[in-house]
Each structure stands twice: as structure tokens, then as C-alpha cells.
């Protein structure tokens, strides 16, 4: 009799070529590869060392920003692994459970993303043409919204509903939105933000414009 343990699967999600949800970091990496076009990324490299991935994202005109990405099954593992938050721009995870995650790190929680895929995937079937969704996503990123917030607003828009999200923008989102409109990259924005903060709680030295 074989002593091999039976394979364990996550719940069924039927997301393109992946039929079951990730149960580890490797599953997160694969699911991101399946969905990278949803996030409007161009992948430059993937490695086993920190950070796991380097990608580019279009920011307007003829400019692209470089993004350093770390994959985790749970976002809290980033802190457990003692990674430096200043050396990464985005965490891509299945579950976002890091309650003290620095606000300047963008977190893409795939378990929430797959809930909104049907409407989004219909918009990106023609890869040679920038979809309505991609344009919407870029516009909202300029305003400092997270990907989860963008996906929610997109689905509400396609359903003909007004956005239910009344959550005010944080200081970081306001700052990010202002600097995006000035054409700065994510790295440039974060450097300026760090220079303007008094302490680790991200309290700005001067009031940002509303």
C-alpha cells in the first residue's frame, strides 16, 4: 500500500485553467499568472528570492512604473518572514489578514478578486485592444484607489448602480492621487510620502489638499 498522503484541494473556483482555490503560496503565484492581464501588469521576472516578482504597469503617456511584488498565501506572512516593507510595492495574496500592513503597500487579495471576475474577464478578451475595464482601472488608480475598491466600483457601474462605497479617502490615497496626476511613479510617490511622515503611523507633517 502506498504511504503517500492524499492531495488536499481548496474550494472550487473554476477560474480559467485553475479549478480549485490556492491552499499555499505556489497556488497564489499560479493564479496570479492566470490573471495577470486583469491587473494590467507586464511581468519582467519571477524568482524564489525576495522580492518574488518585478513587473511594469502603465501610468500614462509613454511611461511605465516598475513594481516589486511579493507573493504570500496570507498577507500576514510577509511580517512573519521579516521582509522589509520599504523593498516591495505590492503584496499579492489569497487572504489579506495583516491588520498592521503599511498603507503604502498595495495588497491584492485574490480571494476577493475572483468574486468579481465574470464582469471583468468579458472586458479583456481582446488583448490587442485596451478594454473599457483597463481604462477604468487606470483612471481610478490615478485617484489612489486600491484594486479591490476599483473592482467593486466597476461591478456596480456595469450593474447600473451608484457606488455604495462612502468610505472617505485616507491621507495616503489623497496624496497618491495628487502625485499620480503629476505623473510620478509609485516609487517616487512613496519616497515623498516617507519624507513627509512624522512617524510609522503615517501622519503627514502638512495638510494635504482635499
Tell me what you see in this structure.
The structure is a single chain. The protein has one domain. It starts with 11 loop residues before the first strand and ends in a 14-residue tail after the last helix. Helix 5 (132-142) crosses helix 6 (147-158) and helix 7 (171-181) packs across helix 8 (186-196). The strands form two sheets. Strands 3-4-5-6-7 form a five-stranded mixed sheet. The protein contains eight helices and seven strands; from the N terminus they run ββαβββαββαααααα. Strand 1 and strand 2 (18-20) form a beta hairpin. It is of the alpha/beta class and 210 residues long.
Tell me the count of domains: 1
Question: What structural class results from the helix and strand content?
Answer: alpha/beta
Biggest sheet, spatial arrangement of strands: 3-4-5-6-7
The ordered string of helix (H) and strand (E) elements is EEHEEEHEEHHHHHH
Helix content: 25-40%
Main beta sheet: 5 strands, mixed
Report the oligomer: single chain
Report the β-strand fraction as a percent range. Answer: 15-25%
Amino- and carboxy-terminal Cα gap: 68 Å
Keywords:
five-stranded mixed sheet, 8 helices, single chain, two-stranded antiparallel ribbon, 210 residues, 20% strand
Brief digest:
With 210 residues, the protein is α/β, with parallel strands linked by helices. The protein has one domain.
What order do the helices and strands come in, and which of them pair?
Layout: E1 12-15, E2 18-20, H1 25-35, E3 41-46, E4 53-60, E5 63-74, H2 77-80, E6 90-95, E7 106-109, H3 110-113, H4 117-123, H5 132-142, H6 147-158, H7 171-181, H8 186-196
